[in-house]
């Protein structure tokens, strides 16, 4: 009899430790992000197929997941080449992409693009849809770009059942704007890396992942 009571009490304690408490539900999204550390993961688990990936960090949050992809910086200068991504599962129809809200969520625009607004961005389109970008020249042969775009589950398979994937990229390279934009373009964002396929190569991981032209 006593061992049964002890077993019940032990199970109850374990469940209580794992349960979602009213306090955890009241924690703001900003506070939750501060409390949730990133975890390093394999490059093969990156949500995009960007060239020159050196590190991938990820964390799961309430209703969304975040991934940060660090890329090699061969152009020199200050700042890191990085892709910041937010995967969200929207209930019902996803709202319009909100540049200002996304930039605030990402902690602001990285250097040298501090203070860049949505009105400063150029727009273009590729096989995966519309993307927005701005550029800064850092010398005779160095160009830095800031790029943003949104992908939906209608365009490719998204991680963890998400319905939208928002992407912000800062990339400085020696070359031209299109070289710097490569990690943001369809060949990189249409799917995750696969063994035997070079980073940035255009391919689809299933018929459901095929990009559509909007």
Terminus-to-terminus distance:
67 Å
> Which percent range describes the beta-strand content?
25-35%
Structural class: alpha+beta
Biggest β-sheet description: 8 strands, antiparallel
Q: List how many beta strands DSSP finds.
A: 8
What form results from the Cα inertia axes? globular
Spans where pLDDT lies below 50 across 5 or more residues: 1-24, 195-214
The helix content is: 10-25%
Order of helices and strands: HHHEEEEHEEEEHH
If you average the pLDDT, what whole number results?
79
Rounded to an integer, what's the Rg over CA atoms? Answer: 20 Å
Number of discrete helical segments? 6
Strand order of the largest sheet: 1-2-3-4-8-7-6-5
Secondary structure layout:
Elements: H1 2-18, H2 22-26, H3 29-35, E1 39-41, E2 53-61, E3 64-71, E4 81-88, H4 99-105, E5 122-126, E6 129-137, E7 142-152, E8 164-174, H5 177-181, H6 186-189
Antiparallel strand pairs: 1-2, 2-3, 3-4, 4-8, 5-6, 6-7, 7-8
